[in-house]
Amino acid sequence: MNVKPFGAIISRGMSSKPSGPSECKFGTLLLRRTIPSSSCSGQKQPPNRIAYRIIRPGLLMSSAERKVHPLIVIHGGPSLPSEYLTPLAENQHLRNRAIILYDQLGCGWSSTPRQNEWYGVLQMSQDLDELVKHLGEVWMLQKYHLLAHSLGGAIGYEFLKRDIVWSLGGGAEERGNPQCLSFILSNASTNFQMSSSERNRLFREFQALHGGTHDNLSSQFDRIHVCRTPKKPAELKSALTRRGKDWSANDYTATPVAICPAANASNVIGFPPVLVIRGQYDFVTQECTRDWKRLLALPYDDGHLKLKEVVLSDCAHYPHFEQPERYSYEVERFCSNADK
After folding, report:
1. 10: which residues sit within 8 A by CB, 6+ positions away?
2. How many other C-beta atoms can be found within 10 angstroms of the C-beta atom of residue 219?
3. Phi/psi of residue 102, each to 5°?
4. Does the pLDDT value for residue 261 go beyond 60?
5. What is the pLDDT of residue 263?
6. Which neighbouring-strand residues pair with 54?
7. What CA–CA distance (Å, rounded) separates 335 from 323?
8. Which of 9, 76, 141, 327 would give a disulfide with 151, using CB separation of 3.0 to 4.6 Å?
């Protein structure tokens, strides 16, 4: 077989390459979305591509028959390449499931356009929408689970809102998207200014307790409230080194789905079952995550939203490194219940 580098486009848009103990397939998606400045000026925009990889593609192809559906993972950042989430795929609890990772625009193996218009939570949610459609068309994806880490939580939430808004006009099935069976919000804030404020508050308390300057205390603080492993994991260190386009999401605050009072309640699909999971010491505190329940409960749900909250002890912002067995167990258990 002719093995191509990650991002090469061959038949079906894929290339094959081993990644550790699990088979991995790599592919790229040519984005259809445009930006206002290109549309208004009539200029031809350069092709922008999203790079993705499917770990254990054989399990993806047999997922409908086995009723063990794949997990699509949305990384955080902004622009932190998805490589830091790779260890999830090799955990024993998740090895019976296909895992799909992708790099958002501006980082990793995906395109990095110069114009700032390409970047933002809403823009990234549109790209995720295109990716899910692509996986349905190319890989016959029918059902999946969605795990969103940190900033990825906002992207995943806005993506799922699109299906709900679409359902008001006649049903999400007509839109052609595969079905999301569950949504896992991992270390994800509803308000980025709040999480920044909480991080600053925790640092001030840490500084008052230990003394010293910001520079002297920064690494010690990170070992408590960011990643509590004895050494920074190699995958995380690499991703931080390769961080991509510098754009800000600090102005993002999650807002409820806008549903007209006259809407037909029978058409509204609602959110899938939701797991909100975070670390005990995460700078994304309970203050930052408590609004998810309010935001995800639609007026027509009648209390039917299934939402579970888990706080992992001795964890901060990267629980898949800090408590990998417990974290993966909670993720797999939640997905398995939704598979049924």
Report:
1. 2, 4
2. 10
3. -145, 155
4. no
5. 55
6. 25, 100
7. 18
8. 76
Q: How many CA atoms lie within 13 A of 229 on its CB side?
A: 16
Which residue would you say has higher pLDDT here, 277 or 38?
A: 277
Mapping DSSP to helix (H, G, I), strand (E, B) and coil, where does residue 321 land? helix
Q: Structure tokens of 260?
A: 């007209």
Is-contact 81 244, C-beta < 8 A? Answer: yes
| Euclidean distance between CA atoms 79 and 65, whole angstroms | 36
SS (H, E, C) 159-228: HHHHHHHHHCCCCHHHHCCCEEEEEEEECCCCEHHHHHHHHHHHHHHHHHHHCCCHHHHHHHHHHHHCCC
CA distance 106 to 127: 12
pLDDT at 7 over 60: no
Reduce the DSSP state of residue 252 to 3 states and report it: coil
Distance between CA atoms of residues 13 and 28, nearest Å:
6
DSSP 113-124: -S-GGG-SHHHH
Q: Which region, left, alpha or beta, applies to residue 337 given φ > 0 means left and ψ of -120 to 50 means alpha?
A: alpha
In angstroms, rounded to a whole number, what is the distance separating the alpha carbons of residues 35 and 118?
7
Angle CA(109)–CA(177)–CA(263) in degrees, nearest 5?
130
Taking only the tens place, the pLDDT of each residue in 304-328 is 678 999 999 999 999 999 999 999 9
SS3 14: strand
In contact, 278 and 312? CB cutoff 8 Å: yes
Q: What is the DSSP string of 107-149?
A: STTS---S-GGG-SHHHHHHHHHHHHHHHHHHH---EEEEEEE
- Of the candidates 177, 189, 195, the residue with the CA atom closest to the CA atom of residue 272: 177
SS3 content of the chain, % helix, strand, coil (to 5): 40, 15, 40
Query: pTM to 2 decimals?
Result: 0.89
* Tens digits of residue pLDDT in 85-121: 999 999 999 999 999 999 999 999 999 999 999 999 9
